Amino acid sequence: MADRIDPSLEVEGLAFAYPDGRQALFGVDLVVEKGERIALLGPNGAGKTTLVLHLNGIHSAGAGRVRVAGLPVTKDNLQEIRRRVGIVFQDPDDQLFMPTVAEDVAFGPANLGLKGQELKNRVAEALTAVKMQDFADRAPHHLSFGQRRRVAVATVLAMHPEILVLDEPSSNLDPASRRELADILLSLDVTLLMVTHDLPYALELCPRSVLLDDGVVVADAPTAQLLLDADLMRRHRLELPYGFDPSVALR
């Protein structure tokens, strides 16, 4: 009998209220299998960011539980959880603060104790994955916005995460940079959870989408099926770009 492989993510009955009493999540359930690519959709204020910040212990559940690859997200496990769940924030400048690209990518693994050739190999591997290996010695602030976002992805990949979480990865990218990043993300062997308002990007990258609104999961379905539900989209304030037809994904 084969050993059971734990899902990359299990969220069960997750509820959370902010200190001012505002309830942000109301019993969220979500299972993400290893290697899945899932888009987390919803209008502003739906609870998407609040949910994501539970995945690496920035927020602590008021009720329910979160497990990453079978490991509970608890205070005792935070160091390992934060290695396993890598979050790429919307603004890459929130993650890039070292003098060179290589030093930024090395920062996390070095804090885990990697050094010498092993650390150099980890940095080279991560930069190659995002096609930024020729920029290792450059200062991040000399790069284009799209290049900085790819380096931000590399800083997370260097930690060998179980889950790569991306917050609005396509925002502020020109069409060429948007395409380059999509190709990179599709090539990665990692579980991916993408928070986005870019519905065509969600359709291209994520076979499955989860729609969150008012702190609850209101839909969990194949992305094309969800985007073709005009009534669902309207009720939850989601809107496709003019002329975009999600049914092309079904042909």
From TrEMBL:
Chief localization: membrane
Keywords from the UniProt entry: ATP-binding, Cell membrane, Membrane, Nucleotide-binding, Translocase, Transport
Organism superkingdom: Bacteria
GO molecular function: ATP binding; ATP hydrolysis activity; ATPase-coupled transmembrane transporter activity
Residue ranges occupied by any ABC transporter domain in the UniProt entry: 9-239
Assigned GO CC terms: ATP-binding cassette (ABC) transporter complex
InterPro entries: AAA+_ATPase (IPR003593), ABC_transporter-like_ATP-bd (IPR003439), ABC_transporter-like_CS (IPR017871), ABC_transpr_CbiO/EcfA_su (IPR015856), Co_trans_ATP-bd (IPR005876), ECF_ABC_transporter_ATP-bd (IPR050095), P-loop_NTPase (IPR027417)
UniProt subcellular location: Cell membrane
UniProt GO BP: cobalt ion transport
Membrane-topology descriptor: Peripheral membrane protein
Function: Part of an ABC transporter complex. Responsible for energy coupling to the transport system.
Family membership noted in the UniProt record: Belongs to the ABC transporter superfamily.
Name the UniProt record assigns to this protein: ABC transporter ATP-binding protein
Organism: Cryptosporangium phraense
